[in-house]
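4.2 Preliminary Data

To establish feasibility before requesting continued support, the project team ran the inverse folding procedure on a target of 227 residues. The structure was first converted into the token representation described in Section 3, and no sequence information of any kind was made available to the design step. The complete token record follows.
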């Protein structure tokens, strides 16, 4: 059975506490990573950009702040997340749409950039999603991806593992009232592609100039590439 229905249900359930949990889990660093995503995506001018798996809209809103002339679509398949995004950024000129990353409802060569945060670890077919993003990007367009990555097995690994396996689920129970959801998110991090392996998938999907940068003791990575 695929992840899709269960992931949608989970994100619908935690939408109301999602932003608070992100701030607490990352010790307030998550907004810095999102700004880095927007910087790596570059200036789209008056073109259209897509923030996929937009969640509660942080990356889309940052894109609007930095690039007032472009058109922005914030897409997500969790309707509750989209409702939170609309409430938080009702004054922003952003088009919120229900969107499945596996089958993007857009024509080929539509976007100057596609950004997304915490999408790929939650899909069944990472390579297929990357190919879909490649399809809808214009030639020369940029993909920028923020996601977790398994920590390196160094001297810090036991402490990071303890935080992931015990600390984050405990925070999920106390703040979001949903220990199981954050236990899943922890497990999906530890089982996800290492940053170098994910970069290789970007290249296989057709992207060039692929690179990445790690944050938060090597547990977060931002990947990018060009069509």
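Position-by-position output of the design step:
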């Amino acid at each position: 059975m695929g992840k899709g229905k269960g992931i949608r249900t989970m994100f619908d359930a935690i939408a109301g506490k999602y932003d608070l949990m992100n701030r607490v889990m990352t010790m307030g660093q998550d907004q810095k990573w999102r700004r880095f995503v927007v910087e790596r995506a570059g200036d789209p001018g008056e073109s259209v950009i897509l923030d996929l798996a937009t969640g509660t809209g942080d990356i889309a809103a940052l894109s609007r702040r930095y690039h007032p002339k472009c058109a922005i679509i914030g897409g997500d398949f969790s309707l509750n997340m989209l409702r939170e995004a609309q409430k938080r950024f009702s004054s922003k000129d952003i088009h919120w749409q229900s969107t499945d990353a596996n089958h993007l409802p857009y024509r080929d060569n539509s976007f100057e950039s596609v950004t997304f945060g915490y999408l790929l670890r939650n899909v069944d077919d990472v390579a297929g999603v990357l190919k879909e993003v490649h399809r809808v990007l214009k030639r020369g367009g940029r993909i920028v991806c923020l996601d977790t990555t398994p920590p390196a097995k160094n001297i810090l690994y036991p402490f990071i593992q303890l935080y992931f396996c015990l600390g984050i689920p405990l925070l999920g129970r106390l703040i979001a009232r949903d220990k199981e959801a954050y236990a899943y998110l922890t497990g999906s991090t530890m089982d996800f592609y290492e940053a170098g392996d994910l970069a290789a998938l970007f290249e296989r999907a057709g992207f060039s100039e692929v690179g990445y940068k790690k944050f938060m003791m090597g547990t977060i990575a931002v990947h990018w590439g060009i069509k």
